[in-house]
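Tripartite tricarboxylate transporter substrate binding protein
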Amino acid sequence: MLLHHRAQNEAQKHRRGGEGEDPHRIPALTALVVAAGPAGAQDAFPDRAITLVVPYAAGGGTDVLARMIQPALSEELGVPIIIENASGGGTLVGTERVTRAGPDGYELLFTTSVVTLNTLAYRSPLYTMDDLVPVAPVSQQPYFLIMNREMPFDDIPGFVAYAQAHPAEINYVSLGQASPTELLAGRLQHALGIELTRVPYPGSGAAIPDLSSNRVQMQMTGASQNSASIPNMNILAVAGDERIALTPDVPTFAELGYPTMVGGTWFGVFAPAGTPEAVVTRLARAFAAVRSTMDQTLNDAGHYAIRMPDGFAAFIEADMSLWREDIQRMGIALE
């Protein structure tokens, strides 16, 4: 800012016919003013509304989470936060929109781990992770294995014994070939040495009546109050690093001898590639402050803080390597 001010004074002095001023200095001074501009703009960030693009329909879990933190984020940044739903194409519509947005921090992607799965599961992905800059994690949600109560078992050993004796007789809910529900169900079969039958559904809501009536028997689903409250279902295990407060009596798969069964969905924020580091840092600090302020509220809603000692980008890469193994083992290659 000081450089900017001095350059303006020098230019004004020349226009007034300043004694001894060299006319050849004007282009150089102009260049200094222009060069100072972007840094000043970054220092002032943000100075207008920021849009969070949610690549899911209004009312869904990701949309609800974005709206939960919207007021606190607006207060932290001092500008309005606008949420726009851009669903379609398995999140591709909203994601592509942000990859094409101006890299100034005013249009951000508020999404889930599906943002990485799309780059792994398609033969010719429409974007890569190089098109986006990780800004901040928001939460993670490990998955439950829920099972209909009419089945003749209520724990993982009983499930394994029954499934091995009745191969492919247990049906499970799948929400898409490259969805976490499908990939974790595939990992489950591999880890437990069992065979299940996939039944596709367009969304979790559509599957609930069939789960409750035992038309389909099980689902890998987010560890939330909603999934814990589905009628006529037992929770056999949680695919987390540790037990969660919502269901303290439910063991983790790791406790039961299946250490690879750790996974679920994480939620995070991304900016277009090329967004200035200073802007990304400002946004990251704001989201971290919101997470700290709302930690108990988010935990109560089943959205737990992400442990990432090496940073968000390193966490994403490690997570992608696990999903990559699942996708390759399952032979998934979408067109």
